[in-house]
Design brief:
mainly alpha, 9 helices, 0% strand
Length: 237
């Protein structure tokens, strides 16, 4: 579906969010583009694993549905899409570990983050169930069993304001949530970063930065808030 491009600032934020998944060994397709491991840099051309992915949070039926939905949001054309990038695996991992992707710095503590992640789990499952229930009511079958035209029509009624319908109001928040997870999962893979046309992202941040104070793990000698110099607050562009 159109309109899924993101800007450079969002791409950098997504890289930070997705780094939490980078060391998980259970992915068969999804791989973090900024991993320092050389063998991961060829993921775009590597064949998919023959071992099926084992979902951590989603049921197998829900996993297949998420894989299909994410591919509809970012389909393969002349370049690979969400399915090739393993986006459904990423979404399953983030949900299992209670990591929301649409929180923009408003989580003040670890308990706040956990609550937001638990809320994301509940809302996501409720959204998938709503989607299937709505399809049964409108088309006589669950989402994966209706025609491609019916699927497209329904998602467009959730995605585009000009096509909103009163009967789909409950699904709009879910679709936005799904789109956020899909964008994060896709644009943090090598496939996704290359599709952005920002080659500098790979060279500017080839791997996750480590702590810059290894001799002071408790950070007790860092200046207090308000004492930082202007140089220490500069953002490299």
């Amino acid at each position: 579906m159109g309109g899924q491009s993101i800007d450079r600032r969002d791409a950098l934020r997504y890289i930070g969010i997705a780094s939490v998944a980078a060391t998980f060994p259970g992915f068969t397709r999804w791989t973090f583009a900024c991993s320092p491991d050389d063998h991961l840099q060829s993921i775009a051309s590597a064949p998919a694993s023959a071992t099926p992915h084992q979902p951590l949070f989603l049921s197998s039926e829900h996993f297949r549905l998420v894989e299909h939905l994410s591919e509809m949001i970012i389909p393969a054309d002349d370049t690979p899409g969400a399915k090739d990038a393993g986006v459904a695996e990423f979404i399953d991992f983030m949900l299992a570990n209670r990591v929301p992707v649409n929180a923009r710095g408003d989580l003040r503590s670890t308990p706040d983050a956990i609550r937001a992640g638990e809320d994301a789990q509940i809302r996501f499952l409720a959204g998938l169930n709503w989607l299937n229930a709505h399809c049964k009511s409108e088309f006589g079958g669950e989402f994966l069993n209706i025609t491609s035209e019916q699927q497209k029509s329904l998602l467009e009624s959730l995605a585009y304001k000009s096509k909103f319908k009163p009967t789909t109001e409950s699904g709009r928040d879910f679709f936005q949530m799904l789109r956020d997870y899909t964008a994060v999962g896709f644009y943090t893979t090598k496939i996704g970063l290359e599709s952005l046309g920002y080659p500098g992202l790979r060279t500017a941040w080839p791997k996750m930065p480590g702590c810059t104070h290894p001799d002071d793990p408790e950070h007790v000698h860092l200046p207090e808030s308000g004492q930082h110099t202007s140089a220490s607050l500069r953002i490299v562009k």
